[in-house]
């Protein structure tokens, strides 16, 4: 499909595939404009397209979707010396992520959640045999450097014999003027509720008309059959709703 790349100097069309990695789209732009991948920032609806994801992970569902390209000036490129490539290793696979050494452990967990969909609460990170258990410490305080390998262990979700009372979440559902009238709708739902149950609630309350919509939380398209807890939704978070359908399975 063709998308429109918007720059300060103008715009141009680019052929991309929904299964195409974001990094490969940036490489195409580098070939066309001569702008190094490291100096490119792509965004759609003000959400940055992260290198570890594919185009289908973002609300790019129609021909002609507009994607903003921001180019970091050369004089500011020295700030990239703080950025390093690390490897995040799971039991069955590994992924490469670009991080800043000054960002926090919590920020890294959020990036892993966006790319992998693993609930943040289940993530336990280890580097050089030491658990990175303080979310607000900087990565550099744990000695993270270029090509560091971080091991991920997933915490088990234990169930007590008597199930606890489901936790309630106060959420805000954000709609845009391109979809309906721009609005912020406060909701209270169980953390165990699925995205499909959220959709049905909005339909019953006539917040949304009977149509096709998808939801986004922290830059990641939400899956209908998965719970809010599975998506890592926390109390006070915002969910964004867009018109359209996602062709990939849940």
TrEMBL record:
Top-level taxon in the UniProt lineage: Eukaryota
InterPro entries attached to this UniProt entry: Ubiquitin-like_dom, Ubiquitin-like_domsf
Protein's organism: Tetracentron sinense (Spur-leaf)
A GO cellular component entry from the record: nucleoplasm
Gene Ontology biological process terms, A to Z: proteasome-mediated ubiquitin-dependent protein catabolic process
Lineage: Eukaryota, Viridiplantae, Streptophyta, Embryophyta, Tracheophyta
Stated name of the protein: Ubiquitin-like domain-containing protein
Residues annotated as domain Ubiquitin-like: 1-60, 84-155, 169-241
UniProt xrefs under Pfam families: ubiquitin
GO molecular function: polyubiquitin modification-dependent protein binding; proteasome binding; ubiquitin binding
